[in-house]
Amino acid sequence: MNNFKITKLQNNVTLISENLPYVQSFSLGFWFNVGTRDESFEENGISHFYEHMLFKGTINRSSKKISEEIESLGGYLNAFTSKEQICFYGRGLAKNVEKTFEVISDMIQNPLFKETDIKKESRVVIDELNDINDNPEDLIFDKFEEVLYKGKSLAQPIIGREEVIKNFSRQQLIEFHENKIKFNQPLIVASGNIDHDFLCSLAEKYFKKNLNPLHVRENLILNNSSTELIVDKEIQQVYCIVGKASYGYNDERRIPLNLLSNIIGDGSSSRIFQQIREKHGIAYQINSFVNSYYDTSVFGIYFSTSEKQLDKVLRLISTEFKKLIDTNVSKKELMRVKEYIKGSITLGLENTTNRMIRAANSYLYFGRVISIDEIISQIDIVNEEQIQQISSELFDEKNMTKVIIKSNSKLIKKAA
User: Fold this and answer.
1) Do 100 and 12 belong to one domain?
2) Over the range 28-60, which residues count as b (16 or more CB within 10 Å of their CB) and which as e?
3) Is residue 62 one of the residues assigned to a domain?
4) pLDDT value for 76
5) What value, to the nearest 5°, has the Cα angle with vertex 292 and ends 384 and 337?
6) In terms of residue numbers, what domain contains 385?
7) 155 contacts 149 by C-beta, under 8 angstroms
8) What total of structural domains would you count in the chain?
9) In sequence order, what are the residues at sequence separation of 6 or more whose Cβ sits closer than 8 angstroms to the Cβ of residue 370?
10) pTM value?
11) In the predicted model, what is the mean pLDDT of residues 286-307?
């Protein structure tokens, strides 16, 4: 059953809410369909930087007052930037929903962008960037997409590049705000003990302008190719991702793709976990992943191991690829993975923020909120032949990308 209500107001604000009368709280998100893939190379990182700057004060509130007004009511404010969206969201007790709505509305309509704040925050974001660069477990995912989508805006890291971050100007932020946020339709989504009509009245009260419709993207045209990148770092372990671009949200094959990813590498009962960690004991971290966008996704196998075991791990992964290409999965294994995914989805629904995010993503990618029952039905109808067909397309190693982070000193020793 789908308990969501959807209203599009005359000012183009779209509101989605799910009433959960058995909880005492709410999660409320303001979504904008703009992100890193909508940035030019010269402004890479501005979406993420803009997200930071909206917490630095408005014409009505200081940065401290923004936090105090919400936290004094037992609430919470946060935000995140992805390659396709920016979201500002809050949680709180049901009786305080208007205050949270009003504060976020003020943040996204009346930011100050003070020069002193821009300079200070650029140092904070560069520190955040350095943390990523110092951590191979984070860095490798940025590098993988950089190689996979080379020449496309999806290749750019969400956080941006230091030489760009430190030079963001007040005028750039104002132009980004005016062109991408202020006059564009926010998608407002709430889940919890919240009344839909009251939410609509808040949107009419705090958004007076007629706003533009949601931003629509063109499909990405991409050809996978065999590429390898080695990144030198002074580290003890070797970190590796091997994979390729695959089906996005706009492709029905994304469901069997996610099932296949679970079969090969998600969870301790998956094939590569059992082979590489449990049977051979040559990797502590190893898992598959699918990172989806509107028109493409990133499938990969991620692992860390010692340098002397790297080739053996890659051979074992290759063997598992070939098995899935050559032989259908058993009904028992497919059923296990289906139940695992359905269980994960259901458990995630115990959190109102997860429910809010799921509803927003569903509407942004499909134009409607897809019910859990429909998702489960889509999972249930996937058969063994579909899994093998996706395997044949996905596991062709002639056009896979490989990124390895390893110690430069070891490379020098090996070359010598």
Assistant:
1) yes
2) bbbbbbbbbbbbeeebbbbbbbbbbbbbbbbee
3) yes
4) 95
5) 30
6) 227-415
7) yes
8) 2
9) 362
10) 0.93
11) 96
